[in-house]
Hints:
Mean pLDDT of chain A: 95
Helix content of chain A: 10-25%
Order of helices and strands of chain A: EHHEEEEEEEH
Number of helices of chain A: 3
Radius of gyration of chain A: 15 Å
Oligomer: homotetramer
Structural class of chain A: alpha+beta
Number of strands of chain A: 8
Largest interface: A-B, 25 and 25 residues
Amino acid sequence: xxxxxxxxxxxxxxxxxxxxxxxxxxxxxxxxxxxxxxxxxxxxxxxxxxxxxxxxxxxxxxxxxxxxxxxxxxxxxxxxxxxxxxxxxxxxxxxxxxxxxxxxxxxxxxxxxxxxxxxxxxxxxxxxxxxxxxx
Amino acid sequence: xxxxxxxxxxxxxxxxxxxxxxxxxxxxxxxxxxxxxxxxxxxxxxxxxxxxxxxxxxxxxxxxxxxxxxxxxxxxxxxxxxxxxxxxxxxxxxxxxxxxxxxxxxxxxxxxxxxxxxxxxxxxxxxxxxxxxxx
Amino acid sequence: xxxxxxxxxxxxxxxxxxxxxxxxxxxxxxxxxxxxxxxxxxxxxxxxxxxxxxxxxxxxxxxxxxxxxxxxxxxxxxxxxxxxxxxxxxxxxxxxxxxxxxxxxxxxxxxxxxxxxxxxxxxxxxxxxxxxxxx
Amino acid sequence: xxxxxxxxxxxxxxxxxxxxxxxxxxxxxxxxxxxxxxxxxxxxxxxxxxxxxxxxxxxxxxxxxxxxxxxxxxxxxxxxxxxxxxxxxxxxxxxxxxxxxxxxxxxxxxxxxxxxxxxxxxxxxxxxxxxxxxx
Lengths: 135, 135, 135, 135
């Protein structure tokens, strides 16, 4: 069973048409990634960027937004690391809303692992590489 | 000469690593799209969504972020409508920073034209279709 | 016992100094107000602004931020309606962090009840006036 | 003549009622403070927090929002340092819209000067203290 985290659409997330402003959908993906670090990897991202000085900025993104999200919606975002490179992690996000067969949004984000002090690439550590296996 | 608009990276745009939080890069694209409506199309987006009740939510996105943006950076975003469908507009954004030969980021956003009262597709009006021609 | 709601400080909330960008603290207050409507008043704010066409924009604010919030912090915000006028509601927010005797932040927000279709003042309905009594 | 800076209300700034989400008004104040550092003090805030390691987080705020701001509005924010303490700066912001006699919003923000490496108070430097004199 893949990891899922809940997001509630807030007043600040929606535009004057009453639907979520699309840059916020990527913010939701980042929040879901943070939840994945805490719950699946077992090391909160604040600790990863803080003590560990390791960060994962986005370098490539593909996204499909099929149906809009409205104020008050509660969704679940399914998060997985779909590919692990030497230094990169590819994340897959699927947005699920109750009662809908298909995800309303799918996002793939390639992130580059960098040393936050030197801003240079850093190999994916084992404690990330082994996380989520068998889950 | 393609249309370009200036963006200054603000304190609120950067994260604790000192680089722009990637969802903000899409916000910059939206701001650039708003500037394009005002300057190239000749009808400000507030009027398009207001009086005209026509909106362009994003439905598909591809983005490459090659080099990070830092606090205080001033960039120019080149904006073009690269494809016009029956109801859709495809937008291309290239982020330029002085002294760099290649754009630091490229984003393509497919937007779907919808009637904001009925949330149904709406054909691209001529005053958008003809905008930017010869520019 | 007053109503409290939990907030987790996210990556997007902090600035390059690693502390929460202060406009986000007001966003937290708005999120806490939304939780109060759902949990205490018993009518979610999406329904209040949607079906009911009643909104509460802020008209006056006083805030004391005594100690900064950092990335990864989990806090509880205590929310109460501290005064009810003919059309206005005054909200009090106290930010609590585990292990600290005093709130790290206190915010008071006077909101004006308005009809969202006419943008004119609207009397506080009984279902808000009576909420939270004896709680 | 006091320093003024222009702000254009963007799509992302407004809520589903079509008016600016109030935490964004404080973001506008921060942007105006950044412009003041660059234009009046003569040292951009990116340099102040970067090279100088000096930051001004908000510690006390009072705000009056008299009339709402709508999508597409262009305003001028008048910025002044209204009081200088040993380590603190008090900022005054007045939001002006063309054709209106009175500011639509007034905000006062007390900021505490801190050393960003030690998170301890730091005296107001002369190059801030002397800025804006006679202006």
